[in-house]
Amino acid sequence: MKDNNESYCIYPGSFDPITNGHINLIERGLHIFDKIIVAVANNLMKAPMFTVEERKEMITLSFANNPLSNRIIVDSFDGLLVDYCRSKGVHVILRGLRATSDFEYEFQMTFMNRKLDRSIDTIFMMTGMQWFFVNSSVIKQAALSGACVSGLVPDIVCERLQQKIKSIKKKG
Ligand code: PNS
């Protein structure tokens, strides 16, 4: 249940899987907002490695020993992000920006969201310097090729990636 005396934002994404860059952004976002709803998109345009439930579980477990865990709500959504924001009564979307390469995509998405609902705004935070080169695709690519991604993702993600890759390779 949302408390109207608290400030909320929605941090949407594919989180396939969550990385330390995402964690860093959530932690810093909590300096600004009382609560963050981490919303996993059931994105029909993408073929994810992990199911929505697996992605949600990894996010929850990544914060299991984090004192900020009670200020994070892990959820998922289908369809339009602005509809989801409205359904939650939240009017701020949080997104991370790494290099300038992210900008065009984010710019387009922000304008489309704004066209769909002018009451919803997007704010951007720069990803922590340490995580500038980290995204979920690079992590999956590296892990699939046998690289160790420890230190770039939470430990639980490292474990789940290894299990997933093993099962993919078994299926052939
Ligand atoms: O982590 P990602 O893949 O960059 O996240 C993109 C996401 C999930 C935020 C974006 O694709 C999204 O909002 N999808 C839901 C559909 C939608 O509302 N799209 C924007 C208007 S076309």
Biggest sheet features: 3 strands, parallel
Order of helices and strands: EHEHEHEHEHH
Helix/sheet category: alpha/beta
Rg from alpha-carbon coordinates: 16 Å
Uncertain ranges: none
User: How far apart lie the N and C ends?
Assistant: 44 Å
What general outline do the C-alpha atoms trace?
globular
Fraction of residues in helix: 40-55%
Write down how many β-strands occur, each being a DSSP E stretch of 2 or more residues.
Answer: 5
Mean pLDDT, rounded to whole units?
A: 95
Beta-strand residue fraction:
15-25%
In this entry the ligands are: 4'-phosphopantetheine
Structural description of this entry:
With 172 residues, the chain is of the alpha/beta class. The chain has 6 helices and 5 strands; from the N terminus they run βαβαβαβαβαα. The protein has helices spanning 20-29, 52-62, 81-88, 103-116, 136-144, 155-171, and strands at residues 8-13, 35-41, 72-77, 92-97, 121-126. The strands form 2 sheets. The protein has a 3-stranded parallel beta sheet, with helices on both faces. Strand 2 (35-41), helix 2 and strand 3 (72-77) form a beta-alpha-beta unit. The longest helix is centred in the last third of the chain and has 17 residues, at 155-171. The termini are far apart. The relative contact order is 0.19. The mean pLDDT is 95. The structure holds 4'-phosphopantetheine. 4'-phosphopantetheine binds next to strand 1 and helix 4.
